[in-house]
From TrEMBL:
Residue spans crossing the bilayer: 55-71, 78-100, 120-142, 154-180, 200-228, 249-268, 274-300, 312-330, 336-359, 366-385, 397-417
GO MF assignments: L-glutamate transmembrane transporter activity; L-lysine transmembrane transporter activity
Domain Cationic amino acid transporter C-terminal positions: 366-416
Protein name: Amino acid/polyamine transporter
Location relative to the cell: Membrane
Topology with respect to the bilayer: Multi-pass membrane protein
GO cellular component entries: plasma membrane
Family: Belongs to the amino acid-polyamine-organocation (APC) superfamily. Cationic amino acid transporter (CAT) (TC 2.A.3.3) family.
Keywords: Membrane, Transmembrane, Transmembrane helix
Keyword Ligase: no
C-alpha cells in the first residue's frame, strides 16, 4: 500500500507540473497578444488529445530544473520573493475585477447560480482537486524546517484556509466580469479583463499568472526530488536517485530525471487530460492519508489485541465498501434510493469504530480532531468525488498502478529486502 501511495504521489507531481507548464504557455501567448495555442505546434499524425506539441513547456521546465539543481535555499528565496509579488497580483485582480464588474454590472451573470445543478458542482469539485496539489509540498520540507511538528501543520492549515478563501473571491470576481459560459478555459482572467474594456490589465494578470506558475513549478521540482530521494533510500527504486550533490546540497539525479519525464508528458498531452488524471491520483492519495490516519490511531503492532484488530479491519471494510457503493451509484444513477442504503451503512461503520475499538495511540504534538469521524468523512468524500471522473482517466490510472505493482513485485520488493538484510548483517558485524 505504501508503494502504491508513493507511486501515485510521484504521478501526481509529474502530471501536476506538466499541466502547469502547458498553462504557462497559454498565459505567455496571451501576454504576447496571441491565442492560447499559437505557440504550440500541430502534429497532424497524432490523435487530437496529443497533437498540440508544446516546446515552450520544455524550455520552462529546463530552466526550472537548472534553478532547482543549483540550490534548495536559492529556490526558497526565489519563491519567497515571488509569493509576495503573487499576493499583490491577486489583490489587484480582486479589486480591479470588482471595480470592473460594478462598472459593467450584470446581475444575470449569477443567475442561475448553479447552472449544472448538484451534479455539475461535484463534477467540478473532482477536477478542481488538482489545484490543492501544492499542499503536499509543505510536508516534504520537513528536513528543512526547524520545528516540523509545529510548523508543518501550521503551514498546511494556514495556507489551505487562505488559498481556499482566495479561490472563492477570485471565482466571484470573474463572474462579475463575465457569464460563466464565456470564461476562457486557457487564460480566464486575462480574457475577462479584456472583455470589460480593461485590456491593459490583462498584461498584469498574465505576468502575475506566469510568475505564480513558475513558483509552482519550482516548488514541484524540489518536492518531486524529495519524494524520489526518500523512496530511493529504501532501494525500492535505484539508490542512484538518492545521491545528494555535496557542493549544491541538492539531489541532482532525482531532479533531472523527474523533470525530464515531466517535460515529455507536457510536450504532448492536453491540459484537460492531465487535470482529470491528476484529480484521480490526488483524490486517491487523500483517501489513503485518511485511511492511514485511522490505522495509526487504532493499531500498534504488538499492543493491539487480535480481537480489536479484527474489529478495526471490519469497520474499515464497511466504511470503504459503503463509500465505494455511494460513488458507483452516483456515477450510474440519477436517483436517491441508493444513498438511503449506503450512507447509513457508512455511519454505522464509523460509529462501530468509535464505540467498539479503543485508541492505541494519541498524538504528542499535533492531532487531527474528531477521530474517527473526520478521517472517515474524508474517505467517503474522496471516494464519492472519484465517481465524477471520466472512464478514460480511470483506465490511465489503472495502467499506471498496474505498472508500479509489476515493478514492485519484480524489482523493488527484492532490492529493498536485500538492502535491509545487508544493513542488518553489517550492524551485527560492528556491534551496533
Amino acid at each position: 500500500m505504501a508503494f502504491i501511495a508513493a507511486g501515485n504521489i510521484i504521478l501526481e507531481y509529474i502530471i501536476g507540473d506538466a499541466a502547469v507548464a502547458r498553462a504557462w504557455t497559454s498565459y505567455f501567448a496571451t501576454l504576447c497578444n496571441h491565442e492560447a495555442n499559437d505557440f504550440r505546434i500541430k502534429a497532424h499524425g497524432l490523435s487530437e488529445e496529443y497533437s498540440h506539441l508544446d516546446p515552450f513547456a520544455i524550455i520552462v521546465l529546463t530552466i526550472i530544473c537548472a534553478i532547482a539543481v543549483l540550490s534548495t535555499k536559492g529556490s526558497s528565496r526565489i519563491n519567497y520573493i515571488a509569493s509576495i509579488v503573487h499576493v499583490v497580483i491577486i489583490v489587484f485582480i480582486i479589486i480591479a475585477g470588482v471595480i470592473a464588474g460594478l462598472a459593467n454590472a450584470n446581475t444575470a451573470n449569477y443567475t442561475p447560480f448553479a447552472p449544472f445543478g448538484p451534479r455539475g458542482i461535484f463534477q467540478a469539485s473532482a477536477v478542481i482537486f488538482f489545484a490543492y496539489l501544492g499542499f503536499d509540498s509543505v510536508a516534504t520540507m520537513a528536513e528543512e524546517t526547524k520545528n516540523p511538528g509545529r510548523d508543518i501543520p501550521i503551514g498546511l492549515v494556514g495556507s489551505m484556509v487562505i488559498t481556499t478563501a482566495l479561490y472563492c473571491l477570485l471565482a466571484l470576481t470573474i463572474c462579475l466580469m463575465q457569464p460563466y459560459s464565456q470564461i476562457d478555459k486557457d487564460a480566464a482572467f486575462s480574457v475577462a479583463f479584456e472583455s470589460v474594456g480593461m485590456g491593459w490589465a490583462k498584461y498584469i494578470v498574465a505576468a502575475g499568472a506566469l510568475k505564480g506558475m513558475t513558483s509552482i513549478l519550482l516548488v514541484g521540482a524540489v518536492s518531486q526530488a524529495r519524494y524520489v530521494t526518500h523512496i530511493a533510500r529504501t532501494h525500492m527504486i535505484p539508490p542512484w536517485l538518492a545521491q545528494v550533490n555535496k557542493r549544491t546540497g541538492t539531489p541532482i539525479n532525482a531532479i533531472v530525471v523527474m523533470q525530464a519525464v515531466t517535460a515529455i508528458i507536457a510536450l504532448f498531452t492536453e491540459l484537460e487530460i492531465l487535470a482529470q488524471l491528476l484529480s484521480i491520483s490526488t483524490l486517491f492519495i487523500f483517501m489513503l492519508v485518511a485511511l492511514a490516519l485511522i490505522v495509526r490511531r487504532y493499531y500498534v503492532s504488538g499492543v493491539t489485541s487480535k480481537v480489536n484488530r479484527s474489529k478495526l479491519i471490519f469497520c474499515l471494510v464497511v466504511i470503504l465498501g459503503s463509500s465505494t457503493g455511494t460513488s458507483i451509484y452516483w456515477a450510474n444513477s440519477e436517483g436517491w434510493i441508493g444513498y438511503v442504503i449506503s450512507v447509513p451503512i457508512w455511519f454505522l461503520g464509523t460509529l462501530g469504530l468509535w464505540v467498539f475499538v479503543p485508541l492505541a495511540r494519541t498524538p504528542k504534538i499535533w492531532g487531527v480532531p474528531l477521530v474517527p469521524w473526520l478521517p472517515s468523512a474524508s474517505i467517503a468524500i474522496n471516494i464519492f468525488l472519484l465517481g465524477s471522473i471520466d472512464r478514460a482517466s480511470f483506465v490511465r490510472f489503472g495502467l499506471w498502478t498496474g505498472f508500479i505493482l509489476i515493478y514492485y513485485f519484480l524489482f523493488g520488493l527484492h532490492a529493498s529486502y536485500d538492502s535491509a538484510k545487508e544493513y542488518e548483517e553489517k550492524g551485527s558485524e560492528d556491534g551496533t
